[in-house]
Design a protein that fits this description.
This protein is mostly beta strands and 68 residues long. The protein contains one helix and four strands. It has a four-stranded antiparallel sheet with strand order 1-2-3-4, with no helix packed on it. It starts with a strand and ends with a helix.
């Protein structure tokens, strides 16, 4: 069973947060999911689009973010 464990959240504006979740399957970390969480009058929840970073690509992704 796949579990998503929220590990970080930052507010972008009044209606959107960016959420980073650890993806765990069979007690093994498979990677990290980065997604928008939206709060509006009509909808509250995660957006359809997101980014999954497999555990073997985390260091490469961290280096990419550090370049910003």
């Amino acid at each position: 069973m796949t579990q998503f464990k929220e590990i970080a959240r930052t507010t972008v504006n009044d209606t959107r947060d960016i959420v980073v979740s650890q993806v765990v399957e069979d007690e093994e970390v498979k990677g990290y999911n980065i997604n928008s969480y939206i709060t509006t009058i009509n909808y509250t929840g995660f957006s359809k689009g997101g980014v999954f970073v497999p555990v073997e690509k985390v260091e490469e992704f961290k280096n990419l973010v550090n370049k910003m």
